[in-house]
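Structure, all two chains, one model.
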Amino acid sequence: MENVGSLFHGFAVALTWYHVALMLVGVLLGILVGVLPGLGAPNGVTILMPLTFTMDPVSAIILLTSMYWGALFGGSTTSILFNIPGEPSSVATTFDGHPMAKQGLAVEALSFAFLSAGFGALVGVAVITVLSGWVTEFALKFSSPEYFAVYFLAFASFVGLAGGNPVKTVVSILLGFAFATVGMDTVSGSLRLTFGFDELLRGISFLIVVIGLFGIGELLLTMEEGLKFEGVKAKVNLSGVLRTLTRLPRYWIALIRGSLVGVWMGITPGGPTAASFMSYGLAKRFSRRRGNFGKGEPEGVIAPETADHGAGTAAMLPMLALGIPGSATAAVMLGGLMIWGLNPGPMLFLERPDFVWGLIASMYLGNVVAVVLVLATVPLFAAILRIPFAIIGPLIVVVCFIGAWTVGASKPDLWLALIFGLVGYVFKKLDYPVAPLVLALVIGDKAEDAFRQSMLMSQGSLTIFFSNPLVGTITVLAILLLAWPLFSMLFGRVRAGRAEKMRLAE
Amino acid sequence: MKAAFALAAIAALGVGSASAQEWKPTKPVEFVGAAGPGGGTDIFARNVQAIIQKYNLVDQPILVSNKGGGSGAEAFVYVKAAAGDPHKLVFGTSNLYTLPMVAKVAFKHTDFVPVAAMVFDEFILWNKGDSPYDDYKSYTAAAKAANGTFKMAGALSKDTDQTLTRYIEKDTGAKFIYIPYKSGGEASVQLSGGHAHSHVNNPSESVGHWKAGQVKPLCVFSKERMPQGPKVTETKGWSDIPTCKEQGSGIEEYKMPRTVALPPGSPPAAAEFWANVLKKVSETPEWKDYLEKTSQTGRFMAGAELKAFIDEDEKRTRKVYEEEGWLVN
């Protein structure tokens, strides 16, 4: 229980007026950059970074991490209201969050998202507090084959479940993989699929694709369906938020499952994006309400949000203790650590306990502050949906293109966003699922790198994925999940066959 | 209308005549980092910016942007497109001249006007903390005896780390399996976890793991030992690491410059202006502090000295790449 003692010491560091004020400022700025798609947490933290050079490291990291929490929450707002994910990790939130908003349940969707995200974050910090020493040891066991197995698990848990035509799902995944290969290849160091266009050097940005597929694609559909949002007549007030709070405990299974997936993926570290997809996939497969998923099911919001924030907070530990950034934002903060004169590594916990435990304590406080602040903004944001579509529609287009521009300040990105908008529209019309494409685009290149590094290590032998108990277990689990639809189909046939026999016998 | 034109013409003339002798930025300046946020190049650019602003060395505001796509090629392409505009400076490493050799990118290093090299980052041969090898010779001999099964982790492919690995192979006859990761930080974690045998990280990339005893330095690829500084572990500091040359390596020196360059067609006066500013930056206490925190070696180079250095390093690297069959341009 030495850790608990250190934590109280940390609270003493974090609980000063100055630090609480920094938390408030950070969270508010974070919500702001999170709400604007394209700006996002990594950009926000980068812009703020030079201000922290002259600050004390504890204060600096409290400001930056608070901004990160704020941005994570803000990213869910646009996912739910406009189907435009502000952060890669909030893509899965759109699947049920946006349908809820369209049905006039925006307040509920937002409140569920923020509350469950807060829950996931607190579980994440609690795990860090209790297990800090052990987690570091565990994370060191991960090499390329283990990484690949984790990504494979994320794919397997998400992909096997896709309803509808399996061929269409495969097409969507393969397109995602193809887009993910554009640009510089880490393993061979050569350029792929750029066709001599300098604009494609840095690859196809995930955000551009999402802004197109989700934001613009969705707008095109809405226009076709008659120029209106369904949420216009919804009642918007704070009591809706409180009512949601009382309904939350009913979803305890989703909350716990989401937190576990999140913490696991944060530590391993598969990252928040993979975590949210995986949690959504698992919930959709094993929930009692699975039939309602994709049509505005609260559990479909709770599952990815809990996992996203659980992973986001749990990933801070490998970052501090090993210097592995779990996300783009964490990578920027790592750069900051160097400038403040700190070296991430296991010794950081011994050398600068005030910094480490101050940060961990601030994660408890910062997330509570963030939940309260974003919940207070719910009525405000939900009210946006009352604005007639004729006004809000064009505004969304403008926001989409500003977002696409902020990513890399390059003109071709705007065209790409437009093209992906059309692709999104066509996909929906032809009933192709978009989600597998997005998942493949986000973790496809990481999975590819891990696979090829493993092949280099083993000199081309696939047995490396079963070479130790850790990687073997994850691989087998992934294969089982992938084959799950087959099993359930077989069982279904057997059961149906039996029922048929019974009927005939009668 | 006519009057406005005349005024503009006079203004243009005025600027033109001024730039003949002395150039000064007349609009906001952009520092373009040829790497993503958080990496060594980004920290380099942001420190230079912070110091310039603190000492008011430039009248115009300076923004730092990151264009790390294509291992940094994005930044060079972007700055090349700003031909003749000395308000955009690209911050990179030796990738300024090595990238165009290995990837089909639309620029050559001769397109740019080099301004200065300000820092040299060192390369160190690292082993896992509990490895039985303590020096260059015994480690490479073991690698040679293991017949090409030792794994060398590194950052990126066909970049500085892999090039140095090839030098070591040529020097000792050992063969390594080179495994490229996205960054030196990732490579360091792989070594700490025992998933690789060694890597050749820059000091700042592995200092945290060294402190914890998870990795240990064997030798530094430098002519002289690194400068004296505070101890990193309980008993050792950077200056206690022997040079590889001391330990009988045939590799004299291997360092990575951090470079600053201007777009093609920038006037020589502008290059001179920026070289002066950067020279002043390199003389501030903040700069010394940055060098010490990141364990890099400060060495300011500009003008003819810089050009000669780049030419020589380019030629040497090109020879290795040619032998490896990496050359595409």
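The mean pLDDT of chain A is 85.
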